[in-house]
Specification:
- The structure is a single chain.
- By secondary structure, this protein is α/β, with parallel strands linked by helices.
- The chain folds into two domains: 99 residues, 2-Layer Sandwich (Transcription Regulator spoIIAA), CATH 3.30.750; 241 residues, no CATH class.
- It has twelve helices and four strands.
- It has a four-stranded mixed beta sheet, with helices on one face.
- Helix 5 runs parallel beside helix 9 and helix 11 runs antiparallel to helix 12.
- It is elongated and about 100 Å long.
């Protein structure tokens, strides 16, 4: 074949055979990084022009082959498969075989960590967003299913659980969060009581501030505020921890040693969250009611006994049980989505940061949606 002169063209291609039939492609010279793009262009043009039914690539004349050249040959093989053209390499030296063996063909199919930035229309962006959402929904569902299986196995075989790790994460997610949960709940209760008193005291209904605050804190604000705080503190920490282990290939090492990553890494975190989030919810309810009590005593001329008695009268045992049940569901969602986002990490430090942000945002979304579903269900059931 005659080719135009090119400064980096230090290889030659010779084709024998008829168009549309079996072809023999003899490659000689150097196939390296400096001429890889030219090599790929000429080979692609040859395949398009000759349209072979079968292709045999003779590498006897190759004097030099580096990893970039080996990648070019594998791309030739991939292009032939895409065209349904059987391809065979012949006269491949041992050194060339070793270089080509260093490249994992499956790794070439993995999408790049950083996608090319390009402009897309609104319709294309909506389509891509819908596809990502559907794929993410499937992955989250599969992970939560595996996590629920691990939880059932833990209930049947409690000795298999790493309880020392559970205690460690209980301290991180629970005990370390007591100050911020208590402070925010107290201030929230104080604000709600103060704002509601501005309206109720016009009708002489000061005492009903206690009922309003108690029902609001126990049924809604206590569980959801606690869940939001735990998602921001612990859900993000779970995602960052597992994501960093993925980047450092520590999760792969666990799999190699025969450990199940979900049982080893995710299960202790989820169990710890299930235990501490309901406790933190009760803690938040108490501090919220205490904030309302302060407003009732100092601003509404109520006695502590009258305020607490009205609080007790307005609440039923079922309200507290349902509040703790919601808190337990929120705990599974927070810890589960945090661990799932951590296991999804691919790349470096930027991927860990993205996973951490995604864990918090996804957890908040699921908390709000789940709480709305509970509110509708309880209203429909008359609870």
């Amino acid at each position: 074949m005659d080719h135009p002169p090119h400064p980096n063209r230090n290889f030659s291609l010779k084709v024998a055979g008829q168009k549309g039939r079996e072809l023999n492609l003899a490659i000689s010279g150097r196939i390296a990084l400096e001429n890889l793009s030219l090599f790929n262009e000429e080979v692609a043009a040859l395949l398009a022009r000759k349209a072979p039914g079968k292709l045999t690539v003779d590498l006897a004349g190759v004097e030099y082959l580096d990893s970039a050249g080996a990648l070019g040959l594998l791309q030739l093989e991939s292009e032939s498969k895409a065209r349904s053209v059987p391809l065979q390499f012949v006269n491949l030296s041992e050194k060339a075989k070793g270089i080509m063996g260093l490249i994992d063909p499956e790794a070439l199919k993995i999408p790049p960590l950083i996608k090319e930035r390009g402009s897309a229309s609104l319709v294309e962006q909506l389509g891509e967003g819908s596809q990502r959402f559907a794929k993410d929904l499937v992955e989250v569902t599969v992970f939560l299913g595996a996590l629920l299986i691990s939880l059932m196995q833990a209930l049947l075989h409690p000795r298999s659980v790493r309880w020392q790790d559970v205690a460690y994460y209980m301290k991180r997610a629970g005990a370390d969060g007591l100050p911020i949960v208590g402070l925010l709940s107290f201030l929230l209760g104080l604000i709600i009581a103060f704002m509601s008193s501005l309206q109720l005291k016009q009708f002489g209904a000061n005492i009903f501030v206690a009922s309003l605050l108690a029902i609001g804190m126990v049924k809604e604000l206590g569980p959801i505020m606690t869940a939001i705080l735990v998602a921001g503190r612990s859900g993000s920490a779970f995602a960052a921890e597992i994501g960093t282990m993925k980047v450092n290939e520590e999760v792969d090492a666990l799999v190699t040693m025969g450990f199940d990553p979900i049982n080893f890494l995710a299960l202790p975190k989820v169990l710890a969250a299930i235990i501490v989030v309901p406790i933190l919810t009760v803690y938040a309810d108490i501090f919220g009611i205490a904030g309302g009590l302060l407003v009732g005593v100092l601003g509404l001329d109520l006695t502590p006994y009258a305020y607490l008695k009205e609080t007790q009268t307005s609440l039923a045992l079922l309200d507290i049980i349902l509040s703790l049940f919601k808190a337990g569901i929120f705990a599974v969602l927070i810890a589960g989505i945090g661990c799932q986002r951590g296991f999804q990490v691919r790349g470096g430090a930027a991927a860990v940061g993205s996973a951490t942000t995604s864990a918090v945002v996804s957890a908040l979304f699921l908390i709000i949606v789940t709480d709305s579903a509970f509110a509708l269900a309880f209203q429909y059931l008359g609870i």
